[in-house]
Amino acid sequence: MMHPPSMKILLANPRGFCAGVYMAINVVDELLTSCPGEAIYVYHEIVHNRHVVERFRNRGVQFIESIADVPEGAIVVFSAHGVSPEVRAQARAKQLRAIDATCPLVTKVHAEAIRFAKRGWQILLIGHRTHQEVVGTRGEAPDSIQVVETPADIPHLVIVDPTKLIYLTQTTLSIDDAATVIRALKEAFPEIKEPPSSDICYATTNRQTAVRAIAPQAQLVLVVGSRNSSNSLRLTEIAEIDGTPARLIDDASELRSEWFIGVDTVLLTAGASAPEDLVHAVIESLVRAFGGEVEQVDVFDERMEFGLPGSLRSLLRERGIDPEGRRISLDRERDTAVFLEERGIAHHTVTLTIGRST
Ligand code: SF4
Description:
With 358 residues, this protein is of the alpha/beta class. It has 3 domains: 7-18 and 202-305 and 329-351, 3-Layer(aba) Sandwich (Cobalt-precorrin-4 Transmethylase, domain 1), CATH 3.40.1010.20; 21-102, Rossmann fold (3-Layer(aba) Sandwich), CATH 3.40.50; 105-188, Cobalt-precorrin-4 Transmethylase, domain 1 (3-Layer(aba) Sandwich), CATH 3.40.1010.20. Helices cover 37% and strands 18% of the residues. The chain is built from 11 helices and 13 strands. Helix 4 packs parallel to helix 5 and helix 7 (202-214) packs parallel to helix 8. It binds iron/sulfur cluster. Residues 18-21, 80, 103, 105-106, 171-172, 201, 203-204, 231, 272 line the site of iron/sulfur cluster. Iron/sulfur cluster binds at residues 18-21, 80, 103, 105-106, 171-172, 201, 203-204, 231, 272.
């Protein structure tokens, strides 16, 4: 790599794992520990990150895209993105032991869809048509839900009664893109109802807000995440729309020296499904190539945690394992502090106060 005098690495906080992803990964980890020798199947990628999936695959987990590929009676995990009732029914028909690792914030959107569909409302689901989460949510009430990706979809909608119309959203959308679609929907259907609370989740909102707040201090934004990770892609888009070039990388091996010509300050963040050790490896590569220091920029103090799902707790109890002892706890700040100290990387923390979120 090229060698400018030294590199300032702005480390966005929060970044990386959200509570839903952390819970889903813990579910598969726990099954591998508690059910040794048993085949563990996961429907779809447990979270959208290549490394997470590869690491589990190396430990024997089998990722499938169809319930038909799971043998009768086996354990199957539903991914953090959620599944449609049809998939749940297929699993029941094969008497699978289904463990539901759907993020509770996705389940909340499913519940809203079911509730309004039962009352005879039509639902406009703002999101990416082929994304696993949208496929799952839409499956809750396919006759009542139409997907809206952009304002260009609005003229093609079939609306029976514009006074019984609500919009819901995918949890990982760009806040700005969603706002554009919502504005257009309100213009087209002034009586459209809003969801009871925002469907774009706290983790998506916090990571996007942090990038937007910090990126103007940097000449380059690096987002650790996979290309099929919706929230990671949105982080790169937000930086670029605001005028800072951004690169989405799966890991440090994808760094290219030409990106750093004339760059002395980099903002480093990670999508909600990217493991923190991959972020650490990028820091190590940058410091090795350029020297420099890490400035941790705290924008939100994020403390959200989800417990293990009920379906896994039941399975653990049946096997004589007390689920209460299997606590999920994520402490990114402590892990990063230990990493920086161990590597002798100069670092300090600044607080950029623009709000507070869970
Ligand atoms: S990004 Fe949001 S909705 Fe998706 S798993 Fe994380 S917390 Fe849940």
